[in-house]
Amino acid sequence: MRGDEVVMKLRLHLLRRDEAITALLRHAGWHLEATTPNQLAACHPAVTGEREARRHLHELGLLTSAALRIEFPVRPTAKRHLLVRGG
């Protein structure tokens, strides 16, 4: 990781209590912090963007898992395009 990169923090909502999921994430290098009983803040020192986060989670089989919902932060600098219809 370069010095100018910022570690991305995800929000994970555990839809069922499963210690195997948290153990898998920790073993893969994710740092987890409980924010509520069923919600975790997660970051990985090698993950600085959404694409990398998705790849890491996919490799663990968690990206499309029914056991949790993943929220990726919205980048404040991301450009948003609005569709305007004339009428």
How is the secondary structure organized here?
Blueprint: E1 9-14, H1 19-27, E2 31-36, E3 39-43, H2 50-59, E4 68-71
Antiparallel strand pairs: 1-3, 1-4, 2-3
Write a brief caption for the model.
The chain has two helices and four strands, in the order βαββαβ. It is α+β, with helices and mostly antiparallel strands and 87 residues long.
Give structural notes.
It is a single chain. With 87 residues, the protein is α+β, with helices and mostly antiparallel strands. The protein has a domain at 7-15 and 49-74. It has helices spanning 19-27, 50-59; strands at residues 9-14, 31-36, 39-43, 68-71. Strands 2-3-1-4 form a four-stranded antiparallel beta sheet, with helices on one face.
Please tally the helical runs, counting DSSP H or I stretches of 4 or more residues: 2
Distance between the termini: 49 Å
Percent strand equals: 15-25%
Overall geometry comes to globular
Q: Count of DSSP E strands?
A: 4
Low-confidence stretches: none
Order of helices and strands: EHEEHE
**Could you give a short account of the major beta sheet?**
4 strands, antiparallel
Query: How are the strands of the biggest sheet laid out side by side?
Result: 2-3-1-4
Q: Give me the secondary-structure category.
A: alpha+beta
What number is the mean pLDDT?
Answer: 85
Radius of gyration: 15 Å
Percentage of helical residues? 10-25%
